[in-house]
Write a structure and sequence with these properties.
Distance between the termini: 9 Å
Number of helices: 2
């Protein structure tokens, strides 16, 4: 199978789509072989003015999905799944390339505003 890679992300909350994808590109650039990219992508529902003032907008999740799919990744967490209760947002992701998964789940936690996400991967 060759060398694999695991990338853990926590993208800045106050980014617009283009900046978010630039950060994400730096995280996945050069990842060869089997790769898992997961974490908090903060793909929220805002357009940020000066990285300070949030204005309601459409979800940045669609842009993240399209970017990752173009790079050859598939999400182990369905896009309709809520990982953050406020406004039913999908902020957290697990992306796989060159791997198969046999299940995943999102579990609400009492001690965090984000839900736990896991997937089972076949090596």
């Amino acid at each position: 199978m060759g060398a694999g890679r695991i990338v853990d992300t926590h993208l800045d909350t106050r980014l617009n789509a283009a900046d978010r994808l630039t950060q994400l590109g730096a995280a996945v650039d050069g990842a060869g072989g089997a790769t898992i990219v997961g974490g908090d992508f903060n793909s929220n529902w805002f357009y940020w003015i000066g990285h300070v003032l949030p204005l309601p907008a459409r979800s940045q999740a669609r842009g993240v999905e399209a970017f990752m799919q173009r790079a050859g990744y598939r999400s182990a967490i369905p896009s309709a799944e809520t990982t953050f209760d406020w406004l039913g947002q999908h902020l957290d992701w697990i992306w796989l390339r060159g791997l198969k998964w046999s299940g995943s789940r999102v579990i609400p936690l009492r001690f965090s505003d984000h839900h736990a996400c896991w997937t089972r991967v076949a090596l």
